[in-house]
Write a structure and sequence with these properties.
This protein is of the alpha/beta class. The protein has a single domain, classed as P-loop containing nucleotide triphosphate hydrolases (Rossmann fold, 3-Layer(aba) Sandwich). Helices cover 29% and strands 26% of the residues. The protein has eight helices and eleven strands. The strands form two sheets. A nine-stranded mixed β-sheet has the order 5-4-6-7-3-8-9-10-11. The protein is globular, with a radius of gyration of 19 Å.
Length: 252
C-alpha cells in the first residue's frame, strides 16, 4: 500500500499553520533576514521582538503574543538602548515589568567563543517561541564565513537546541550587489539552502525627505517553503515627540 493517500491529500483542506506573525513567520521554522550593513535590520528586528512580546501587529500583520528571546552580539549598549527606547515610546510606553518582562528576554553580548553552551542553556531556561539572532556571524563566532561545513554545524545545533516548535530569525549581512549577480547573503551558500525562508530588507528608491532621516525600506521574499512571506512589504518610519522623548513608528 502507498504511504500517502493522494486522493485524501488532494481533496482535504490544507491545515492552517500556527503563525507567530501571520503571513510571515510560522512556528517551527528558521528564517534568514538579510540586508546590507546599516539598512536597519536591528531596529526592525527589535520592533519585531516587541510586537510579538506585546501581541501587537507587525507591519500590519497580526501576531499572537509569544515569548521572545533576543541575542544581540552586534550592537553597542548605546545603540541597543537607543533602538529599544525609541521603539518602546513609539508603541505607547507599555509597562515594562508587567507587559514586557514576562514575554521578552534580551541577551546582550552573552554569546562568546563557546556560544553553544549559553545558547542551549538560555533556550532551555526561557522556553521561547521566537528566537532572534543579531547577527549570525557575531553571535556564533563564525571563523570562516565561506565554510559550508561550519554553517551546517551551526544550523544543525540550532535545530537541536531550540525548544520544540520554536521559530528562529537569523540576521545575516547581504552580499554587496554586483552587476549581473542575483542577491544573496554573504558567505557560505548553505545558509540559503538549509533554512525555511529567506527575506531581504532593501532600501526603496528615492531619498528621505528634509524632515525625515529614515530611508523607506521594503521586505522582499526570496524563498519560503509551503508558508511564509509571499509579497513585498513596503516600510516607512515615522518619528514622533512625546513627554518621554522621541519615538519611532514602523508603518507598512
Amino acid at each position: 500500500m502507498p504511504t500517502v493517500n493522494l486522493a485524501e491529500v488532494l481533496t482535504t483542506e490544507p491545515i492552517a499553520p500556527d503563525w507567530i506573525v501571520e503571513g510571515f513567520i510560522p512556528r517551527d521554522t528558521i528564517t534568514i533576514l538579510a540586508g546590507l550593513e546599516g539598512i536597519g535590520k536591528s531596529s526592525l528586528s527589535y520592533y519585531l521582538a516587541l510586537s510579538v512580546a506585546l501581541g501587537r501587529p507587525f507591519l500590519g500583520l497580526n501576531t499572537t503574543r509569544r515569548k521572545v528571546l533576543y541575542f544581540d552580539n552586534e550592537n553597542s549598549s548605546p545603540d541597543m538602548v537607543g533602538y529599544l527606547r525609541s521603539l518602546w515610546i513609539g508603541l505607547g510606553c507599555p509597562e515594562p515589568k508587567v507587559e514586557l518582562d514576562p514575554f521578552l528576554t534580551l541577551e546582550h553580548f552573552t554569546l562568546g567563543p563557546h556560544w553553544q553552551d549559553t545558547f542551549g542553556y538560555v533556550c532551555k531556561l526561557q522556553s521561547p517561541d521566537l528566537i532572534i539572532v543579531d547577527t549570525a556571524n557575531a553571535c556564533f563566532s563564525i571563523k570562516d564565513e565561506n565554510s559550508n561545513a561550519e554553517a551546517a554545524e551551526i544550523i544543525g545545533f540550532i535545530q537541536r537546541a531550540r525548544p520544540a516548535r520554536a521559530s528562529v530569525v537569523l540576521m545575516k549581512h547581504e552580499r554587496e550587489p554586483k552587476e549581473g549577480m542575483t542577491k544573496s547573503v554573504r558567505g557560505a551558500k548553505l545558509w540559503l539552502g538549509a533554512v525555511d525562508q529567506v527575506v531581504y530588507l532593501h532600501r526603496q528608491p528615492g531619498r528621505p525627505s528634509a524632515t525625515d532621516r529614515y530611508h523607506r525600506t521594503r521586505l522582499v521574499p526570496a524563498k519560503h517553503r509551503a508558508y511564509g512571506l509571499d509579497a513585498t512589504i513596503n516600510i516607512s518610519v515615522e518619528e514622533l515627540s512625546s513627554p518621554a522623548g522621541k519615538g519611532l513608528i514602523f508603518k507598512s
